[in-house]
Amino acid sequence: MKLLFVNCCISQRGEGSRTLALAKAFLEAWKAKHPEAEVETVEPETLLALKPFAPDMLNDRDALAGIRCFDAPVYDLARQFRAADRIVVAAPFWDLTFPAALRTYIEYISANGLTYHYAADGCHGDCQAEKLAYLTSGGDAEQPESLGVLYWKQLSAMFGIPGFDYVFAGGLDLDPAKTAELLDAACERARRLAEDF
Ligand SMILES: Cc1cc2nc3c(=O)[nH]c(=O)nc-3n(C[C@H](O)[C@H](O)[C@H](O)COP(=O)(O)O)c2cc1C
After folding, report:
1. Of 67, 84, 167, 172, whose CB count within 10 A is highest?
2. Does residue 9 have its Cβ closer than 6 Å to ligand 1?
3. Splitting the chain (197 residues) into consecutive groups of 10 residues, what average pLDDT does each group show?
4. d(CA 35, CA 16)
């Protein structure tokens, strides 16, 4: 079993990132249940180094797809995503979704012919994972249909990943006196989610 951890905990708090605390709570609980499993991490530095696709880059990628050359480096992240059995994405709630580096990562993993394909009846996912968990922390309280959560829910469906769940540690910037309590409660929800993931 291989778990892919997409670590987009880009934070001015460094190791004190609340989103990272959430991710650590989840991963520690999950690893305790799956001591044999391999955890592969996409580091924040990797995400931040990704260049958004420009037309010439898309042309080059399409040409590779045309000859089914999916072992090319531009497909490295997509191949890694496709092969994982479980996927955990952690990112802070920024500007109603998540940091731009994660949006760029989505451009790299959304590879037609590799992670999904089209057929006459619509789009079909080609990823192996059974479950994807999205972990996020936000300054404001969680709103219904939070865009980052919805985005990853729909991406999971597009990639053919049947199980989607999430933890939103909300309201962390509203009243400093309550931040620790709210984050602890969210970490507990993350541990519970990891139990059956
Ligand atoms: C650039 C930036 C954008 C943010 N945008 C939002 C936002 O749209 N809504 C919100 O509720 N909080 C927003 N926040 C607050 C963070 O979501 C919140 O402080 C979160 O807990 C940060 O997680 P971290 O400790 O892992 O950095 C923003 C913070 C930053 C730095």
Report:
1. 167
2. yes
3. 98 97 98 98 98 98 97 98 98 98 98 98 97 98 96 98 98 98 98 97
4. 26
Output the CA 125–ligand 1 centroid distance in Å: 31
Residue 156 sits at φ, ψ, to 5 deg, of -60, -45
Domain ranges of the chain: 2-195
- Count of CB atoms within 10 A of residue 166's CB? 20
pLDDT for 23 equals 98
- How far are the Cα atoms of 17, 59, 76, 113 from residue 38, in angstroms, in the given order? 24, 35, 18, 26
Q: Is the CB of 136 under 6 A from ligand 1?
A: no
CATH node for 2-195: 3.40.50.360
pLDDT of residue 170: 98
